[in-house]
Amino acid sequence: MIRTVSIVPTITTKSKVDYRTQVERLNVFTRRVQIDVTDGVFAPATTLDITNIWWPRNWAADLHLMAAKPSDHIDVILKLNPSLCIFHAEVQEDLTPLFEKLKEHNIKTGIALVPSTFPGNVENYIKMVDHVLIFAGRLGMQGSPADMMQTEKIPLIRAMSPDVEIGWDGGANLTNIRALAHADLDVINVGSAISKAENPAAMYDALVAEIDKTGVVL
Fold first, then answer.
1. What domains can be seen in the chain, in order of their start residue?
2. Which of 46, 196, 203, 212 pairs with 177 at a CA distance of 20 to 30 A?
3. What b/e string do you get for 77-115 counting C-beta neighbours within 10 Å, with b at 16 or more?
4. Cα–Cα dist 170/185, whole Å
5. Strand partners, 9
6. CA distance 192 to 212
7. What is the pTM of this model?
8. Are the C-beta atoms of residues 112 and 135 closer than 8 Å to each other?
9. Cβ–Cβ < 8 Å for 139, 66
10. If pLDDT is split at 50, 70 and 90, which confidence band does 218 have?
11. pLDDT tens digits along 43-55
12. Is 3 exposed, middle or buried (0-12, 13-18, 19+ CB in 10 A)?
């Protein structure tokens, strides 16, 4: 079955000026955006601090938190009130109480898996959350090539939680977006292919059009 796939632009930056610029550009053509936040510990790259993150009220924002201790940021997350908050399965703390806290505030929960994480090792989280993010790039950085072998995780995740929303993050562009769309994903997050495009809106439309093509997937 080919699912309806959503293209979700991603913001990854450490500059307040660039952040505002990206928000303004994306607000022209989309209402769902993933915002990447790193702490400089869990991920080597550093982004804009979570206390400086904001978005338009009409957005359904997905907050992807790459932090070693997500519990340190839970109060700020609750104030931001994202539509979805994604933590990493690899952190060294129990995420269960954090997911429960988010659900109490009607915030959807997500778990991200880096390439080396086998879904079976975090089945308890996969069965608990609303969204599973297959991370196939480099933490906190845009522009890395997609590790297409990570698509092999999709059927494993579906077997554990058939209705969970599955997202992809890492290297999606016009050369592979169609193959990813046919891999039983629900969401494809796109970073540099959109953010570095001369016309982000036109690139977004081109990605959507590529997904909508019928026929043999090359």
1. 6-212 (3.20.20.70)
2. 46
3. beebebbbbbbbbbbeeebeebbebbeeeebbbbbbbbe
4. 13
5. 190
6. 21
7. 0.94
8. yes
9. yes
10. very low
11. 888 899 999 999 9
12. middle
Can you say how many angstroms the Cα of residue 131 is from the centroid of all Cα atoms in its chain?
Answer: 9
Q: Do the beta carbons of residue 44 and residue 139 sit within 8 Å?
A: yes
- Three-class SS string for the chain? CCCCCEEEEEECCCCHHHHHHHHHHHCCCCCEEEEEEECCCCCCCCCCCHHHCCCCCCCEEEEEEECCCHHHHHHHHHHHCCCEEEEECCCCCCCHHHHHHHHHCCCEEEEEECCCCCHHHHHHHHCCCCEEEEECCECCECCCCCCHHHHHHHHHHHHHCCCCEEEEECCCCCCCHHHHHCCCCCEEEECHHHHCCCCHHHHHHHHHHHHHCCCCCC
pLDDT tens-digit readout, 155-166: 999 999 999 999
